[in-house]
Design brief:
The structure is a homodimer of 360-residue chains. Chain A is an alpha/beta fold. In chain A, strand 12 and strand 13 form a beta hairpin. Chain A binds a DNA duplex (19 and 19 nucleotides) through loops.
Chain lengths: 360, 360
DNA sequence: TGCCTAAATGAATCACGTG
DNA sequence: TCACGTGATTCATTTAGGC
């Protein structure tokens, strides 16, 4: 069997390079392909600054058909490369992930899970025309329907999650700060992924020493995390500048000693429960009247969780402050509901919801 | 124009029934199509009890091609039914959502967001071979790329989320307890959705009195929430037993009084008040001087509502932009009048006029 | 050095009505 | 259909800068 170019970055087109490697030789493939964003004009923040959007050549496609053909080509090559026990991960957004999911099902890949990366700090929607696009989607799949012997480190992920089964929604920050590669003070790559994401992916679906291939290597996050966790990597990247950047980056990474390749579970933070959730779930009906504990002030709850008091409307906190003439107010403890003649602070409903959510 | 069968459940095949309704007549479509689950054999819990999984006739398809054809058929009929300003919501899991997303993009629907419903209490993965499947995906899309005038209640959703922009990941419980319809002690429908999910969907993308169609009505969650929120519904359901179940359920629902359905109104939808009207009504006299909040710039009001600043004249917006050297400016919030030594934004006069006009 | 405030920034399919 | 004017719009973090 041909020797695999392990722990190396290969420059060139990923399809032809994958076709030149021996079939059935790779344990996992992680792919972060172009998203085909199709951005129109420039976007400004409310303060008039311009958003530094993705406008790279590698994200331009003639048409959706061209994108689908590109997707089919690299997924076909990837499928051939995988061991029968191997799995593939692809990450994307709503612009491209439905194309990719459909094509990989057509090719016979078998989806094991889709995973939602919930961004802790996403870019807001500046024009107020849509929801904040706060997540990206990963598809995790086996080579075929009958490939049952894939690696899934159930116990490790459970340990990572406070001894609860790991769910399909992962809350992780975006890549920023010191981790973000810069060239001349500007971001080196427009779509660098956080190492924590790759860390969790590899902890989920690879074993020590496994071979992980990334056909869209970019700045080499896959390689950096693979090296740190004692996995072997093969990076394929078209652009020379990224190859050199990734090479230098990975050179700086140190492999953890085997006994340290387990991390302590992240601290669970208290779930934020907006007042609207209390209304939405019917614990307080729209139209209910709220009172302060002395019944000096009364406000009415609307369908979207805002309050009305005389001619003022706003959040429980804003209206609480308003009626008191105070600069601020904790609406959760200020406002009460009348339960059979007795006043109960609305905070009890928040506690109820929190206990039902169980720390999510 | 043909009369729409509003607030009714129509029994039959959703494609032929939608084809019989007038084109361009519906504000929103919410669809929860069969998931094409492809379960192999029965699933047992660790204690050997059998999981009551989805194995209904309506969820069986001969092949992926048959599912795609079915998807294309109902989405085509749905697109025809929508008003140009209407939006479509589809919910699915990884088994079917990639097929649906690809088909709807092929048909020209324009994705606005995909939304992740994070289940607060999902079913665990009993075999420990995958991640807990803890979410489902909703795709929200407009009828076409150029349909920009869809309803999005940005301010209401912000209110619902404690004055922060609503994100694309929604944490909501599954449908259980008293909300879950039962027949002879067993769940009446295998995939009943929680009312809180529909509540948020309708709060996001419909206005009072809008017409909401659901081609896979099932137990009628869409109809129940529509009735409660003062929206009109059209339910299409193939099975007689579900039609009757939904009919009875919706009969028990009470519509919220109009004053409780009110949500924080979109600013863009408010009556446009030109600055000239402020001058015309004597709220600001011609000759008055306006200042920015730091008193760095001053402009004089003329009789027609235009401003003069040095040698430049124009609207409050143009002159505001001009003095700042900015490309654009909201003059309503930029310019202030001096009221006994304190600066007040001219927007307060607009609000005064608006309240006097009474929403005309 | 340390603390507080201001500025910068991230995979973004980001107006609309009137004439 | 097009041109133009009005006017609506941001969250979590990190980094830089002032004192």
């Amino acid at each position: 069997m041909q020797e695999l170019p392990v722990n190396r970055i290969i420059q060139g087109d990923c399809v032809s390079i994958m076709e030149g490697l021996p079939a059935g030789s790779v344990d996992m493939i992680f792919a972060d392909p172009p998203y085909n964003l199709q951005l129109r004009g420039e976007l400004k923040r409310p303060n008039e600054s311009v958003v530094d959007a993705v406008d790279d050549d590698w994200d331009r496609f003639e048409s959706m058909e061209a994108y689908d053909a590109f997707t089919r080509a690299w997924l076909t090559a990837a499928q051939r490369l995988l061991k029968d026990s191997g799995t593939l991960w692809v990450i994307g957004s709503y612009h491209n992930i439905y194309r990719i999911g459909a094509v990989l099902q057509d090719l016979g890949f078998w989806i094991l899970n889709d995973v939602v990366w919930r961004k802790a700090n996403p870019m807001p929607n500046f024009r107020g025309r849509r929801l904040t696009n706060a997540h990206e989607t990963l598809i995790w799949c086996a080579k075929a329907e009958d490939a049952k012997n894939y690696t899934f480190n159930y116990e490790a992920l459970k340990a990572l999650n406070d001894d609860l089964q790991m769910r399909s929604d992962w809350l992780l920050p975006i890549c920023s700060g010191g981790e973000r590669l810069k060239v001349n003070g500007r971001k080196a790559h427009s779509t660098q992924k956080p190492e924590s994401l790759l860390y969790r992916v590899m902890l989920t679906a690879t074993r020590d020493g496994d071979i992980v291939l990334d056909p869209f290597f970019g700045t080499g996050t896959t390689g950096a995390v693979a090296k740190r966790l004692g996995r072997r990597f093969i990076g394929v990247e078209r652009e020379d500048k990224f190859c050199r950047l990734a090479q230098a980056r990975i050179g700086r990474v140190r492999t953890l000693p085997p006994e340290d390749r387990v991390i302590t579970p992240p601290k669970r933070q208290q779930t934020r429960v907006p007042f609207g959730m209390i209304v939405e779930r019917g614990l307080i009906e729209p139209g209910t009247h709220l009172h302060d504990y002395q019944r000096r002030h009364t406000a009415r709850v609307r369908a979207d969780g805002s309050l009305v008091c005389a001619d003022a409307t706003g959040s429980i906190h804003k209206i609480g402050a308003h009626v008191q003439g105070a600069p601020s107010c904790n609406g959760w403890t200020y406002w009460h509901v009348d339960v059979e003649g007795r006043l109960a602070p609305i905070d009890i409903f928040r506690e109820q919801v929190r206990s039902e959510l169980g720390g999510l």
